[in-house]
Amino acid sequence: MSRFLFLDNVDVQQAFSVHLRQLREQAKLSREALAERSSVPASTIKKFELTGEISFRQLLLLWQSLDDLKRLYDLTVIAPN
């Protein structure tokens, strides 16, 4: 019997939030330092880390500042049949 993992948008938002927070902490960046690097306000970063809520544009700016944006882009590439 296979097990299915059912995710909703909140689960995915939280997963992105946790991932980027871990990367920020590994890089030893404060929210303020990441705000300067990404142009996303520190208050928005805090809200994102606590709730997972953020605009798509700001998510991309944070991701670009902490991770390889191509990794995120690659999720949109459909594999040939």
TrEMBL record:
Checking SUPFAM superfamilies in the record gives:
lambda repressor-like DNA-binding domains
All copies of domain HTH cro/C1-type, residue ranges: 20-49
Q: Name one GO molecular function term.
A: DNA binding
Instruction: Identify the PROSITE patterns for this entry.
Output: HTH_CROC1 (PS50943)
User: Gene3D superfamilies in the record, alphabetically?
Assistant: lambda repressor-like DNA-binding domains
Protein name per the record: XRE family transcriptional regulator
Question: What species does this protein belong to?
Answer: Acinetobacter terrae
List the taxonomic lineage. Answer: Bacteria, Pseudomonadati, Pseudomonadota, Gammaproteobacteria, Moraxellales
